[in-house]
Specification:
Elements: H1 14-19, H2 33-45, H3 48-60, H4 67-76, H5 79-85, H6 87-90, H7 96-106, H8 109-124, H9 135-142, H10 145-159, H11 162-190, H12 210-242, H13 248-251, H14 254-290, H15 297-337, E1 343-346, E2 349-352, H16 355-376
Antiparallel strand pairs: 1-2
């Protein structure tokens, strides 16, 4: 595809820079990565994710604005991600060495039997007796692992659930950000330099959380319409004169100069129509996505507003650039038209009989090149 203005899809990539760490908030603490890894393995071994899934499954059946999120965590979130949500609670409570030792103890048959008994207690309230006559269980209990487990759980309870709730909120927002990044990647794949046809579909992976999915579908639709509008413009501008309006052969041929002057209004009108279309698409997207009702709506708005603001800024700069580019092209055509008989083609290039005219022409061409390069350059984050 011949790029005229650069890739609109890249406007969403600012999100990757501003919000990529959102799923890793716990790691922003000054923790040793090995410590984090050891604690995650410990929590997974201790079946903390199973406990959380049970709790979230119960919560998902209640009338709550977050019930869809709870159902997602209960059914679609990995053990590692659930364990990671608990890092702020457990990191201060257990060292790397303690976590490794405890993990090894609870991965034994006796340790798993102990944990299954604890999990049954959480689920049904029963307290089945442990098989104390089992040699492995006796050794496990004599070593004090049962007491160490309950002590750790009690200390975690005293810390409270607020750190986990905060992590869950970040994970919640991270699902949306992940979806936006996926949309950008899929659109880039369809509109790259080697693309031969315009993009046709853009369907994001859905989370099962209705309001997140609604926002992702709206964003995908907006991004696809933007890309299609850009592609259509790219296809139409050459026929309107983008490839020949100020070509040397045009500037030295009276008939082609006349055609160029006649083509200029249609060229600029198409640019203006494109800018208006992009503004309308952005306004429509903003109105629709702001109408989606979601818990902590302001967090989602902070994310998608970045893309909206970037698009509006891009639209404004595009309009300014293209109007300036059109004005320079018009001046080149009028400049050449006023010097008929004094310019010509020599060895494939244009020449002027007057040195001052050549200098003026070179200035106008340099400005054309500058404006074109300014617009096709990658948008600044």
């Amino acid at each position: 595809m011949k790029k005229i203005f650069g890739t609109l899809a890249l406007l969403l990539t600012v999100l990757a820079i501003c919000f990529a760490p959102v799923r890793c908030l716990a790691q922003e603490m000054e923790n040793d990565p090995e410590h984090d890894k050891a604690v995650i393995e410990l929590l997974t071994t201790l079946r903390v994710p199973d406990r959380m899934r049970f709790a979230f499954d119960l919560l998902s059946k209640e009338q709550s604005e977050s019930k869809a999120l709870y159902a997602h965590v209960a059914t679609r979130t990995s053990d590692a991600d659930i364990a990671r949500m608990h890092l702020p609670v457990y990191i201060p409570l257990v060292t790397t060495k303690e976590a490794v030792a405890m993990t090894a103890a609870f991965r034994t048959d006796a340790g798993q039997a102990f944990l299954l008994r604890e999990l049954d207690y959480v689920r049904v309230g029963g307290t089945p007796a442990l098989p104390r006559d089992n040699a492995g269980m006796k050794k496990f209990l004599t070593a004090g692992w049962g007491k160490k487990y309950r002590d750790l759980m009690q200390r975690a309870t005293r810390v409270g659930v607020q750190p986990v709730i905060e992590q869950l909120s970040e994970y919640h927002l991270g699902l949306f950000v992940d979806g936006l990044n996926e949309i950008t990647a899929h659109l880039d794949a369809q509109t790259g330099a080697d693309a031969k046809t315009p993009p046709t579909t853009l369907v994001p992976s859905l989370t099962g959380i209705s309001y997140i999915d609604a926002m992702l579908l709206l964003t995908a639709d907006w991004a696809l319409k933007n890309a299609k509008a850009q592609w259509k413009l790219s296809e139409e501008l050459p026929a309107l004169g983008a490839d020949w309006l100020v070509a040397p052969e045009t500037l030295v041929t009276p008939k082609k100069l006349t055609a160029a002057r006649a083509a200029l209004p249609a060229y600029v009108a198409r640019i203006e129509r494109y800018v208006s279309e992009m503004d309308a698409l952005t306004n429509d997207y903003e109105a629709k996505i702001k109408a989606v009702q979601a818990p902590r709506k302001e967090d989602f708005q902070e994310v998608y507003q970045i893309s909206i603001d970037a698009q509006r800024e891009w639209n404004t700069s595009t309009a300014k650039n293209q109007r300036a580019l059109f004005d320079v092209m018009r001046r080149i055509v009028e400049f050449a038209d006023a010097r008929k008989g004094k310019i010509g083609i020599l060895k494939g290039g244009i020449y002027f009989s007057d040195a001052a005219d050549l200098a003026t022409y070179n200035v106008l061409v340099a400005e054309t090149v500058r404006l074109f390069e300014e617009q096709v350059a990658k948008p600044k984050e």
